Predict the 3D structure of the following.
Amino acid sequence: MNLLEKLIYKKKVITLDKFIDIALYNKQLGYYQTKKIFSRDGDFITSPLISSIFSEMISIWIVSYWIYLKKPKQINILELGPGNGLMINQIINSLKKIKTFDAKFTIYLHEKSESLVKVQKKNLNIFKNIIWTKNINEIKQYPTIIIANEFFDAFPIKQFFKINTKWHEQCISFKNNIKRIIYYKNKINNNYLKKYSKFFNINKSRVIEYPVKIENYINSISKILKKNNGVFLTFDYGYSDSIGKNTLRAIKKHKIVNLLKEYTDCDITFDVNFNILKNIFKKNNIRHIGTVSQNFFLQKLGIMERATQIIKKQNVNDSKDLILSINKLINPKEMGSTFQALAFCNKDCKFNLGFI
């Protein structure tokens, strides 16, 4: 019996969000603390790992926003959940190559996993002006551009199921006679779900998934956007619908596996309902610039034009690799439509590059 099983056995039942939080982030057991994650040989692959041209497009977007702000002398760039540090590494290198960009910039990285912080510090040790922060509210001056790739989908979630007319919360329990953990649906008062009615149609939904702590994060992001003419760009997989879905899944070696059998050795993720993000930002008086497919955003930023420039200087094999990588990023049957780009800014901001 491992640490998590002992905890469940002792408590009898724990809610799904607490189970996920331990399985992903516990210092001794957590997936993000102990496993090799971000590689082609790992459990999943992210856009920056496919090709640095993805991060180049974000760099262009950052510089374009800086120009929109009339080129302030100093800015901040904050990445949420930087993983192994690859994307911000690529962005810094790209920004240094853009001759028209002469602003001083400080990089802030916000990472929950202490293990990944160590990886980031090792991979980024050649760069100065990088600050790791546990509390993004500490960023108090200069225009701040916030970026994230697959950030919200790593949040622990609460999950609720309607059985007949009664709502139940998804929990985890230890079944002693078979010596393993199982799902356990705990009946709750239907009135408990009223707090989620601003995000979901409770009457028509049969399933509700809600990422805990998301409101605190978005409230903090909103304060930064308001205070310093900030902007927030994020990429994630998800949907926009008032009808909830059951999207929870475990990923190992790029395949979906049984969560309750592999929870110590897999990523646990879900599809973000973007209505939640948009609703909370709206409540904070923050403008939703737009939601578009990753394909649309990257094409608008000029990924094909940039690829043409690169290919002219490459050999045949490298050119083939680049074409395959770009196809992976923008093809609707690959990541092009699975991933969405969303952006938010203060209410007076008119910046909309990549979204129209």
